[in-house]
């Protein structure tokens, strides 16, 4: 390490966010442009270069974190970029979107604030693009083998890039009109501007990857026909079958799934629409679900000019510190976190009745009621105990002109017919079954990412893409030198 006492002399300092009043008026990323590089070398110097770096274990990609921390501390950006890209195809995505389980596993985090690993990663990735350290890497020769990748989220793109660089001819099929999956239409612009995505797509095109948009395999192209045209198929469609909320009044107008709402707001940013048909402007909005997708809806509704926004979380409000008995280091703890969207809601007081920022904790929806025209007007809730059972006498009513359900996803969407046409076996929870080599029961068909693993983090998605690429490469050639960071059975470090 560059400074053996860095972790003792330098306090943790994160990438500063723009003032709330300024950033809610636009869709740009929430961070102060250019404010990361002046502080990041000192922050990287806080890395202890510990003997057993548990940050490696916490990250499924196996990122070489102490190595590139040291290189950033010495301002050797090219070498840092080489180390970072050795394990991660898209660090500018993870540096913005990942909740950083690596920081929870940082040894320094046992009794001090962790190293700002996520910020260091983002700084390296952005500097690499600025300095031209990430040119296209087309293969020296082609293998003569062809692969179809279905789905263009982080798993599909990682698999496609790895297989293209290995010399295979790869085509990515995407049902939407643009490449990117949920990164394109699910992640708001203020969390990751889509220029970062476009840049990688252009790099992949230059390397030889082909893209087929507006093509739903199973509906627009029969799955069996696609399978016959390619030597191997990778299914990376994600887990897009959203969970429902079966309570009275669910059929009222104005109650929508989060993934019906967020894509329209993203299309406004893309220039496809002037105003979203589901805009929250002037409406009382209630978001049911306490996760990241709910927070994305919150930040979006605030920018659209909602009259009020409240987010319901069925779990009790977590504490500010790790519970060492229930969630010991280095597991990822459930603690109170203030995302950019929650910070905005707190300062703007979007939900005066909420417990903290815009959130009502330990709250469960009982029913919806509406007006004579069938439009939702109220959400009725009740407080719940630790077993999520209603607490008598705690019923409340919130005004609601727009309700957004952000309850997560149960598995891949089967409406297109892809799974049925290929005769794929499913797990009891609805995900695609596969063996230890990522292969499904259909010959030559592999499954990776949320479609097979279930809803997970972007780092797990990229790790799955890299691992399935190695499995497909071995299937096609009999061996593979591609890295395989995880197995299908690997799971995050949790209690």
From TrEMBL:
Q: Which InterPro entries match?
A: 4Fe4S_Fe-S-bd (IPR017896), DPD_II (IPR028261), FAD/NAD-bd_sf (IPR036188), FAD/NAD-binding_dom (IPR023753), Glut_synth_ssu1 (IPR006005), Glutamate_Synthase (IPR051394), Helical_ferredxn (IPR009051)
Q: Which residues form the 4Fe-4S ferredoxin-type domain?
A: 38-69
| Gene Ontology biological process terms from the UniProt entry | glutamate biosynthetic process
> What is the E.C. number?
1.4.1.13
Which top-level group of life is the source organism from? Bacteria
For this UniProt record, the keywords arranged alphabetically read as follows: Amino-acid biosynthesis, Glutamate biosynthesis, Iron, Iron-sulfur, Metal-binding, Oxidoreductase
Which pathway does the UniProt entry assign to this protein?
A: Amino-acid biosynthesis
Name the residues that span the membrane.
Answer: none
Among the GO molecular function terms of this UniProt record, one is: glutamate synthase (NADPH) activity
Which NCBIfam families does UniProt cross-reference here? GOGAT_sm_gam
| Name of the protein in its database record | Glutamate synthase
Q: Gene encoding this polypeptide?
A: gltD
């Amino acid at each position: 390490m560059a400074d053996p006492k860095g972790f003792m002399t330098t306090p943790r300092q994160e990438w500063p966010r723009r003032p709330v009043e300024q950033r809610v008026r636009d869709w740009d990323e929430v961070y102060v442009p250019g404010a990361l590089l002046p502080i990041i070398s000192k922050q990287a110097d806080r890395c202890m270069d510990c003997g057993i770096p548990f940050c490696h274990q916490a990250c499924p990609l196996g990122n070489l974190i102490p190595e590139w921390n040291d290189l950033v501390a010495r301002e050797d950006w090219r070498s840092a970029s080489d180390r970072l890209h050795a394990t991660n195809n898209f660090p500018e995505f993870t540096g913005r979107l990942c909740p950083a389980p690596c920081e929870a596993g940082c040894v320094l985090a046992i009794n001090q604030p962790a190293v700002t690993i996520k910020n260091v990663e983002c700084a390296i990735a952005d500097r690499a693009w600025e300095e031209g350290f990430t040119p296209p890497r087309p293969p020296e020769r082609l293998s003569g083998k062809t692969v179809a990748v279905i789905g263009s989220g982080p798993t599909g793109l990682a698999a496609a890039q790895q297989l293209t660089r290995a010399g295979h001819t790869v085509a990515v099929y995407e049902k939407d009109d643009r490449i990117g999956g949920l990164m394109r239409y699910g992640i708001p612009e203020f969390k990751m501007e889509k220029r970062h995505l476009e840049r990688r797509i252009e790099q992949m095109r230059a390397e030889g990857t082909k893209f087929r948009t507006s093509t739903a395999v199973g509906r627009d192209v029969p799955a069996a026909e696609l399978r016959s045209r390619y030597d191997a198929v990778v299914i990376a469609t994600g887990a897009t079958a959203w969970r429902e909320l079966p309570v009275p009044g669910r059929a009222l107008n104005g109650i929508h799934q989060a993934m019906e709402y967020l894509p329209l707001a993203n299309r406004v940013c893309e220039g496809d629409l002037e105003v979203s048909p589901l805009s929250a402007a002037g409406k009382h909005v209630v978001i049911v679900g306490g996760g990241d997708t709910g927070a994305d809806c919150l930040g979006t509704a605030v920018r659209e000019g909602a009259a009020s926004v409240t987010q319901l979380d069925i779990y009790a409000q977590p504490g500010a510190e790790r519970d060492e008995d229930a969630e010991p280091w280095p597991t990822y703890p459930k603690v109170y976190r203030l995302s950019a969207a929650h910070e905005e809601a707190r300062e703007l007081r979007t939900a005066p009745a909420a417990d903290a920022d815009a959130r009502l904790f330990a709250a469960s929806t009982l029913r919806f009621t509406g007006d004579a025209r069938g439009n939702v007007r109220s959400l009725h809730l009740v407080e719940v105990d630790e077993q999520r059972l209603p607490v008598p006498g705690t019923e409340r009513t919130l005004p609601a002109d727009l309700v957004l359900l952000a309850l997560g996803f149960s598995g891949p969407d089967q409406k297109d017919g892809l799974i049925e046409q290929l005769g794929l076996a499913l797990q009891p929870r609805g995900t695609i079954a596969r063996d230890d080599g990522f292969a499904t029961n259909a010959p030559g068909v592999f499954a990776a990412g949320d479609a097979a693993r279930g809803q997970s983090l972007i780092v797990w998605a990229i790790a799955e893409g890299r691992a399935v690429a190695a499995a497909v490469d071995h299937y096609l050639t009999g061996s593979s030198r591609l890295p395989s960071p995880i197995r299908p059975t690997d799971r995050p470090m949790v209690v």
